[in-house]
Amino acid sequence: GLLPPRGALPTPRGGGWATWFYASNIPFNAANKLFFKAMKTSMRYSRQYSQVYDPCIRLTRKRIGGDLLDNAIKKVHTEQGLGAIVNSVMHAGYTFSSDGVTDNQGIPLLNFCIGTAGKGALVDIKTYLKPGSKDSEFVLGTLEEGFETTVDALVRAGKGLDKKKAERLCIQVITDGATTCQSARKEFVKDRPWMTEAWCALHCISLFFKDCFNVDYYFKMYKKVHSVVKYAKSHGAIRSAYDEARKANIRGQIPTSPALALPADTRMAGKWSLLDRAVKSTHNLKAAFGNDEVRKWRDRQTAEEKAKFDKLWEHLCCPILWPGVEET
Length: 328
Fold this sequence. Notes:
Layout: H1 15-23, H2 34-44, H3 50-53, H4 61-92, E1 94-102, E2 108-116, E3 119-127, H5 136-156, H6 163-168, E4 170-175, H7 179-190, E5 196-199, H8 201-212, H9 216-234, H10 236-251, H11 270-280, H12 282-289, H13 292-299, H14 303-317, H15 321-327
Parallel strand pairs: 1-4, 4-5
Antiparallel strand pairs: 1-2, 2-3
Helix pairs in contact: 1-4, 5-7, 9-10, 9-11, 9-14, 10-12
């Protein structure tokens, strides 16, 4: 499905590859792998497509993650995303929001989004190079830049919007609750009296979830459950036994448990998600740790490793821990 029609070139050249990487959530360092280089080489020596794919031979991780990615994002989000909600923007106005995120390459990025009447669209993503101190002046500058980008995108989306009208349709600006962001928001709306400003409700809820684990009871509970899940995921014998137990449940039409997972790379309830998955997996975790092959593997370990295994087995069989997790 990646091959374009014969004689057709992606516009800009290589843009189709960047769209594929982005839409498939493929890490850009995959372009450094031997398989990717071999794929490019095979295309290079293909007579049928050599002329079509010649520009792709020069693709690198840096180029795919640079201008080609920017063009792919603008096409997907600006043309399709904004085009789908522009009618709602015209009738109800929109909220402009901005927040930072770290991608799966460890690069800090800044997102600019708009939301309206239950719908939303990502307008742009920029590389976010943190200065020595993220002061309110710096945050204000990013808001001004992002808002200008948003207004220009809405004008390009059509429906007869001009720049002034697109600005006036923005009724609210939202950032996280940091003091520097609060000062920047207030300064941002000072010369825009038709706008209101607020901090993000999800950030507040996220902080609540995070603060819950500062309570000693929840912190100790989480540490015990986390140690069991991490150990099971990190040791092939236990992980295989767990997967076998899951498959047996599926074949026996017994309510199956989810796959083992450590907290997701997200601020929102990652630790709670681990507890939820673990409490649904207790029967399979016990089956995995009690598996005959796992027990033989345990007997071959050092005294220190045996003691660690036995401690985790105690956690699994604790009559207080798991009812507490379920209640939580």
